């Protein structure tokens, strides 16, 4: 784990701490933090800032009846079920297993040997798992928004550098890139976008509505 | 080495440990009196009416009571822990789907609390408060908006650079210790 060199940008870590990150990115951040002590510590630091600001907020008086109602609930309150904690399974960190509902991914071919599993698709963007055979490329694409790619197995390289397990790439709308999987193990990634991808060649572009990417 | 007495901890930490270890209602009442009006204030900032904001404050404080045993003073100050609970509550209100939850680090089996580590967290909070109070009013306003969920991540990276630079050296203070702590838990 010590080899992680590409981390969450500070602004995203703050937005995650504040709860204002779009859901697709929040999943990628939660998955990266599950693999990266540095970013876990950074998140803790930002939450400490949030706590300090909470301490200094102007007060809004609360009613006595609310306090009484709350204290009435403290009696013998059965503890709610603990958060459904999903454990890591193989290369998939807990938050990815949570998005998979604890089941193994169901891969669908998207051409060129590349496979994907869609985890979430909505107005706020999408998240999916990508399976890229060694030496193969994800179709050349740009972005209308930002795309986060977290490596879970293997490694890929593109115009900006090399990304191994735990590394997260942040690609904005200025980057046209072609990620290529390294020889060896197939590369498995979590990809999160806040807008549809923009493919440069016709066929993937025609398939895009079908593939929902 | 003898541990320093508990009363050298901050008031908030002492009260929260009483809730955690003894289910102390009087201590919880004092935490409520301090945090509930502030939680209500934060909720109203985000646009909720007084009644709805009060409901949020109530739910957050109820979670503080119910999950008190999960409070770990070696890893977070009371205020930072309650900030997290309030943040999670806000996300759950607006999203139908489950909020992604990072894997938890296993709790260390401690025979007793490590007073030095807890004091270090309290001191970090003091340092952070000083750093935030040194910001110019407009910087301070931006930082508050960023941490209270009123800016997008893009707005944070575009607008708060200078303000965050000022806070950042303090943010990193004391974190090396925490990092060692985490490594020891793997």
TrEMBL record, chain A:
Q: Which Pfam families match?
A: Cupin_7
Mind telling me which NCBIfam families this protein's record contains?
Answer: anti_sig_ChrR
Organism of provenance: Roseovarius spongiae
Q: Which domain of life is it from?
A: Bacteria
Q: Tell me the Gene3D superfamilies matching this sequence.
A: Anti-sigma factor, zinc-finger domain, Jelly Rolls
Please identify the protein, giving its name as recorded.
Transcriptional regulator
**InterPro entries the UniProt entry points to:** Anti-sigma_ChrR (IPR012807), Anti_sigma_zinc_sf (IPR041916), ChrR-like_cupin_dom (IPR025979), RmlC-like_jellyroll (IPR014710), RmlC_Cupin_sf (IPR011051)
| Residue ranges occupied by any ChrR-like cupin domain in the UniProt entry | 106-192
């Amino acid at each position: 784990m010590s080899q992680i060199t590409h981390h969450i940008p500070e602004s995203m870590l703050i937005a995650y701490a504040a709860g204002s990150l779009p859901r697709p990115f929040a999943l990628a951040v939660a998955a990266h933090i599950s693999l990266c002590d540095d970013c876990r510590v950074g998140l803790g630091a930002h939450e400490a800032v949030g706590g300090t600001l909470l301490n200094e907020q102007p007060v809004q008086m609360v009613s006595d009846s609310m306090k009484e109602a709350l204290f009435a609930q403290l009696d013998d309150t059965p503890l709610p079920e603990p958060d459904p904690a999903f454990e890591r399974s193989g290369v998939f960190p807990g938050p990815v297993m949570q998005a998979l509902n604890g089941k193994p991914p169901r891969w669908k071919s998207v051409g060129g040997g590349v496979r994907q599993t869609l985890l979430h698709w909505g107005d706020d963007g999408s998240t999916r798992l990508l399976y890229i055979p060694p030496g193969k490329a994800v179709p050349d694409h740009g972005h209308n928004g930002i795309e986060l790619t977290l490596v879970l197995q293997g490694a890929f390289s593109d115009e900006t550098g090399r990304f191994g397990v735990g590394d997260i790439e942040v690609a904005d709308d200025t980057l046209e890139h072609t990620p290529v999987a390294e020889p060896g193990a197939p590369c498995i990634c979590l990809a999160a976008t806040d807008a549809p991808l923009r493919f440069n060649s016709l066929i993937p572009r025609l398939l895009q509505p079908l593939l929902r990417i | 080495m003898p541990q320093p007495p508990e009363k050298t901890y901050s008031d908030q930490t002492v009260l929260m440990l009483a809730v955690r270890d003894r289910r102390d209602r009087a201590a919880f009442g004092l935490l409520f009196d301090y945090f509930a009006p502030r939680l209500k204030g934060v909720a109203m900032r985000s646009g909720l009416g007084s009644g709805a904001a009060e409901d949020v404050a109530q739910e957050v404080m109820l979670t503080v009571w119910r999950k008190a045993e999960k409070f770990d003073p070696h890893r977070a100050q009371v205020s930072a822990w309650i900030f997290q609970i309030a943040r999670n509550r806000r996300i759950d209100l607006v999203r139908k789907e489950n909020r992604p939850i990072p894997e938890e680090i296993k709790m260390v089996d401690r025979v007793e609390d490590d007073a030095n580590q807890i004091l270090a967290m309290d001191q970090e909070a003091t340092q952070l408060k000083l750093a935030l109070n040194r910001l110019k009013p407009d910087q301070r306003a931006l930082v508050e908006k960023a941490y209270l969920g009123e800016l997008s991540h893009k707005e944070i990276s575009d607008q708060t650079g200078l303000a965050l630079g000022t806070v950042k050296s303090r943010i990193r203070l004391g974190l090396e210790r925490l990092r060692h702590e985490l490594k020891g838990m793997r």
